[in-house]
């Protein structure tokens, strides 16, 4: 589900591979967090590339796992797992480059929004369809990708933004054909890996230290509304209505 490698230059790759759409279950989110934390603790690692195999980068949480649960335990754990994975990207002591193709939805936005650098293929789209699922969350991270009013419109309508739009906003570094995505991400990674690793780790820590956005506290606040919607039964009703033909 989560595969990691580290090459001789200190470039680590973390690859999500959970067909059919890379929607991660509870174990997947925690596994991703563990993988990123382990790489960050490895002094030989200089930069991380986060990417995926399959149809798209990430489709968020595994809704089927939540629907099969008999209580709210899975909901609590998947929210904790998402928070852990998002934090692992943000807190990773070295820069994290997200290489995004296809769809990047829900939890995928949390990962990408907390990344240091984003490279995307020309077929990539980004969005938060949460309101159609009776949930909320990751507006914190979408706010780091698009301007405030665009973010609000995307949240209310479940609209998506293209890689080209995000490139115009400055949040996506470069847009390339899908076949060139991994190479493009690795090219940026190699440039970073060639720098002094102590300086790069200090740069990451300093940039997080001056960040005006407390992403962990902000996301935790959002999660509270998701729990309210589920406890009140509204989330189940919305999901049922959305799934009707």
Automatic annotation (TrEMBL):
Pfam families the record matches: ECH_1 (PF00378)
Lineage: superkingdom: Bacteria
Alphabetic keyword roster: Lipid metabolism, Lyase
NCBIfam families found in the cross-reference section: PRK07938.1
Family, per entry: Belongs to the enoyl-CoA hydratase/isomerase family.
Stated name of the protein: Enoyl-CoA hydratase family protein
Provenance organism: Micromonospora sonneratiae
